[in-house]
Amino acid sequence: MLLLESLELLCMAIFRYCFDKQVRRDDSIVSYTGDNLLGKTMIGIYFSGTGNSRYAAEYFCREYDKETSVYSIEDGIILTAINNADLIVFAYPVQFSTVPKIVRDFVTNNKELWKNKKVFVIATMGLFSGDGSGMLGRLLESCGAEFIGGLHLKMPDSIADEKALKRPLEKNKELVMQAEQKIKESVRQLKDGHPTQEGMGLLYRMAGFFGQRLYFGHKTKEYSSKLKIDKDKCVGCGKCEKLCPMKNISIVGQKAVSGNCCTMCYRCINKCPKQAITLLGKRVVEQCGIEKYL
Ligand SMILES: Cc1cc2nc3c(=O)[nH]c(=O)nc-3n(C[C@H](O)[C@H](O)[C@H](O)COP(=O)(O)O)c2cc1C
Ligand code: SF4
Ligand code: SF4
Predict the structure, then answer these.
(1) Residue 286, ligand 1, Cβ within 6 A
(2) Does residue 289 lie in a domain region?
(3) Residue 293 falls within a domain, yes or no?
(4) For 102-160, what is each residue's pLDDT tens digit?
(5) CA 9, 155, 196 angle in degrees (round to 5)?
(6) Which end of the chain, N or C, is more open, meaning fewer C-beta atoms within 10 Å of its C-beta?
């Protein structure tokens, strides 16, 4: 854990040094030059496994204007809501420095929706993503949206069955408070017409690619068939079946059974009352959810 934190600090220091140089060379990286954003109809949308991205979208939108509506991409009304909006704040959890397949499919299956929308992307992450906001922003741009800004938020790690990024409760609470401060500042800049540009630009992209995608990016290319459910622990309560955004789990003979279309959101793993579900790791180390850290 200490080693990872030190490595992160070192990477961030090198990255910041290089990034500052690039910003001085290229002003377009730090100032949005489009028309005034005030007066646009804004909504927040999100996909979230354990609540971090939902919290970020709601906090951001509340700070911007408390009347702003926020929707999950799982809500029935989502397509209409996007259709009626001009400015969309889109929050999602980074997976291996890229976009979860469910989010990619949502964007590309509704390609026509994004034309001429201004989009601000919030990427939440456990440690580091490089170009988390850029990955989704560029995809939206390829569907006709205007990617106006990005924000990266370090938040509690959602991978319940890996201990590498587990932090004490107080540290996780502190991370959420720091994220709130970062959101406040980002909202202020958006209102000033200069949305934050985190995760956009070449250096961020290189950091995302060489830092993670090159080695692990393939893991999110397809839905996963690797979810494991321990039949001895499972009591057939059905919670995982209800929660899964992919309808990937069904109860058969009073036991949960996994299909092969898991988007690795970790919702079921973090919520199973018997800690019977795992995916990347072999056992549940710590279950998390944003409500524990507020
Ligand atoms: C499969 C998977 C892969 C992840 N990959 C990364 C990563 O590459 N970098 C990172 O900083 N966090 C990574 N995380 C951590 C999550 O991005 C982070 O905890 C996020 O805030 C969870 O948001 P949510 O509660 O909205 O799902 C990963 C989480 C999962 C489940
Ligand atoms: S939530 Fe856990 S105990 Fe309940 S059905 Fe699913 S795997 Fe079984
Ligand atoms: S099976 Fe679990 S981890 Fe996979 S998509 Fe469904 S809720 Fe998420």
Answers:
(1) no
(2) no
(3) no
(4) 999 999 999 999 999 999 999 999 998 999 999 999 999 999 999 999 999 999 999 99
(5) 75
(6) C
Quote the number of domains for the chain: 2
CATH number of the domain that residue 253 is part of:
3.30.70.20
pTM: 0.90
pLDDT digits (tens, 9 = 90+) for 181-215: 999 999 999 999 999 999 998 989 888 888 888 88
DSSP conformational letter for 225: -
Asked if 182 and 266 sit in the same domain, the reply is no
Whether ligand 2 lies within 6 angstroms of the CB of 148 is answered as no
In 3D space, the residue among 36, 47, 29, 67 whose CA is nearest the CA of residue 191 turns out to be 36
Domain, as residue range, for 34:
2-218
**For residue 211, is it within any domain?**
yes
Residue with CA at minimum distance from ligand 3 atom 6: 244
Q: Are residues 42 and 156 in the same domain?
A: yes
> How many Å separate Cα 24 from the centre of its chain?
29
User: What is the 112 CA–ligand 2 centroid distance (Å)?
Assistant: 38
- Ligand 2: which of 234, 258, 267 to mutate, most ligand atoms within 8 Å of CB? 234
Ligand 3 lined by 118 (C-beta under 6 Å): no
